[in-house]
Each structure stands twice: as structure tokens, then as C-alpha cells.
Design a protein that fits this description.
This protein has a 12-stranded antiparallel β-barrel. It has a two-stranded antiparallel sheet with strand order 2-3. With 263 residues, the protein is mainly beta. The N terminus is likely disordered. The termini are far apart. It contains 5 helices and 18 strands.
Length: 263
């Protein structure tokens, strides 16, 4: 009996551990995500980009565990051709954005940061001498829990406004989770144009403030449904600047409903 116990003990000590064929592999440092959405209209910084018509939007993102990321995003638009006599665009129905940057955190504070560049592109035909609407912005953002702030600085002419380098936009947001699925979305923005165009200050014509209040609800399978109301602080001069050739003022109070999916 004693010999049997000793033999069993030796066999156990000398046995080679068995490794599972399904051992967990290290997590990949690469992450790819996508998104697509249907919106009742496309509103950017308080201004309708689609003459208050439906917008289909979507994009793709790549991020690395180190913090670096790149991405692209697109939407249909109509604002350039709706006022072609002013913008000089005979055809343009797409906004295509390309961006890249770096995200990180300030130690264990819970505060994160994000710095990068974003290029807005508006392919299409325009008359000779017309200012391109393409815009390059540098940005820096910080976030803590449900609060965030982002400052964007234009590196050249801004969205077709001549001599507007140095224009900036401040985006303040609070996305407060009411329940696990329901989120309250709040936004306040300041758009400050610089320079002058044909002897008129771009600031007096094009600068304004905008705000938004809404809610979003997370559904299964990566879907989200939501709605928000947005408005601006424009005076009569600015209202005229943001009224297109069709007679539509694009900065008035507007309601947007949407359905998005991430994958």
C-alpha cells in the first residue's frame, strides 16, 4: 500500500502539465470600428448642411493600444450648391473628413486628452477663383467622466470664407447617463471667425454661439436612437449670412431625430 502511494506521488510530481488547445491569446493592440447613421437632417455647429433634408452618414476608425488613431467619416450635403452663386460650387454633394491623432490620460486622475488634425473635404466642381470649402483644423480635447471640452483651430480659409485663417470653435459637452441605456446630451458651442472678406469683418458676419439639448437610447446589437433640439444666437446680419439662395435660414431652431449603428 505504501509503495503504491509513493509511486502515485512520484508520477504526479513528474507529470508534464497539460496545456489547453484553446488557451487565451493576447489581446490585439489593433482596434477597427465602424458606424452608420440615418438623420432627419445634418446639423453641424448649429447650421443645417442639408437644407433640413435627410442625411446618411458613416465612417471607419482604426486605433492602436499606444493611443494613436486615424479615421474617416462622410455625409451627404447640399449647402454649397444651394448657394452656388455665392460659394462658386456648381456641384458638391459630399463631405468627407479624414482625421488622426493621439489619445491618452493624465495618470490616474480620470482625465483624458485627445490631440489631432482633421481635414474637411468637399469634392465637386467650382468656378475659377472660388474659395475652396476644404478646411484643415487642429484640435485638442479633454474629458472627465461625462464632461468634455474640445477646441478646434482653423489652419487656413474656413469652410469657404475668404481670409479666415485662425478661426476657432469651442465645443463644450455633457453626456449624462440617466440609466444604463438612456443618456442626456447637452452641448454649447462658440464659433469665432477671424479676418475680413471684401472689407467686412468675418467676425461680424459669421461668428455665433450654438446650443443643443437631446437624449439618446442604446438598443441591442449596437443600435442607438435619439433626438435633439438645436439653436443659435445669430443676429440679423448673421442670419442673412447663413440664409441660402433658396431663402432658407440654416441657423434657426431645429429638431433632429436619428438612428445609428456601431460595429
Amino acid at each position: 500500500m505504501q509503495k503504491t502511494l509513493i509511486a502515485a506521488a512520484l508520477a504526479s510530481a513528474l507529470a508534464v502539465p497539460a496545456f489547453s488547445a484553446h488557451a487565451e491569446e493576447p489581446a490585439s493592440p489593433h482596434t477597427f470600428t465602424g458606424n452608420v447613421g440615418l438623420f432627419s437632417q445634418y446639423v453641424f455647429r448649429g447650421i443645417s448642411q442639408t437644407n433640413e433634408d435627410i442625411a446618411l452618414q458613416g465612417g471607419f476608425d482604426y486605433s492602436h493600444a499606444s493611443g494613436f488613431y486615424i479615421g474617416t467619416w462622410g455625409s451627404n450635403i447640399s449647402w454649397l450648391t444651394d448657394s452656388s452663386a455665392v460659394t462658386g460650387y456648381n456641384s458638391s454633394s459630399l463631405e468627407l473628413d479624414v482625421y488622426g491623432g493621439y489619445r491618452g490620460a493624465f495618470g490616474d486622475s480620470g482625465v483624458t486628452y485627445d490631440v489631432g488634425l482633421l481635414q474637411y473635404m468637399y469634392p465637386g466642381d467650382r468656378v475659377a477663383g472660388a474659395v475652396k470649402a476644404d478646411t484643415l483644423e487642429a484640435y485638442v480635447a479633454v474629458a472627465w467622466q461625462f464632461l468634455s471640452a474640445k477646441y478646434s483651430y482653423s489652419m487656413g480659409d474656413t469652410f469657404g470664407v475668404n481670409n479666415s485663417s485662425g478661426t476657432w470653435y469651442l465645443d463644450l459637452q455633457a453626456n449624462y447617463p440617466i440609466t444604463e441605456s438612456l443618456t442626456l446630451n447637452l452641448h454649447y458651442g462658440i464659433q469665432e471667425f477671424k479676418g475680413s472678406n471684401a472689407g467686412v469683418s468675418n467676425d461680424s458676419q459669421a461668428s455665433y454661439e450654438d446650443w443643443k439639448i437631446g437624449a439618446s437610447y442604446a438598443l441591442p446589437q449596437g443600435f442607438t436612437v435619439g433626438a435633439y433640439y438645436t439653436d443659435t444666437s445669430m443676429n440679423r446680419t448673421q442670419e442673412a449670412f447663413y440664409t441660402n439662395a433658396l431663402g432658407k435660414y440654416l441657423g434657426d431652431g431645429q429638431t433632429v431625430v436619428f438612428l445609428t449603428k456601431t460595429f
